[in-house]
Amino acid sequence: MPNVTVGENSIIGACSFVNRDIPDNVTAFGVPVKIDKRRKEKIVQ
Fold first, then answer.
1. Which of 7, 15, 39, 42 would be 24's cystine partner, CB 3.0–4.6 Å?
2. pTM of the entire structure?
């Protein structure tokens, strides 16, 4: 969707419909997307 941002280090589940902004460091999934939990660790690439 236009004007929707996914925060840094966030994980979005497969087949999820992201219809609003997702904050940093969270796990989210579902239709429509819902935030499951906050992540404490950062992913290092």
1. 7
2. 0.73
Cα angle for residues 6, 7, 12 (degrees, 5° grid):
55
Q: Where are the alpha helices (DSSP H) in the chain?
A: none
Is 43 within the bounds of a domain?
no
Per DSSP, 22 falls in state B
Concatenated DSSP letters of 7-26: -TT-EE-TT----S-B-SSE
Give residue for tokens 């497969």.
14
pLDDT digits (tens, 9 = 90+) for 3-45: 999 999 899 999 999 999 999 999 999 999 999 887 676 666 6
Side chain identity at 27, as an amino acid letter?
A: T
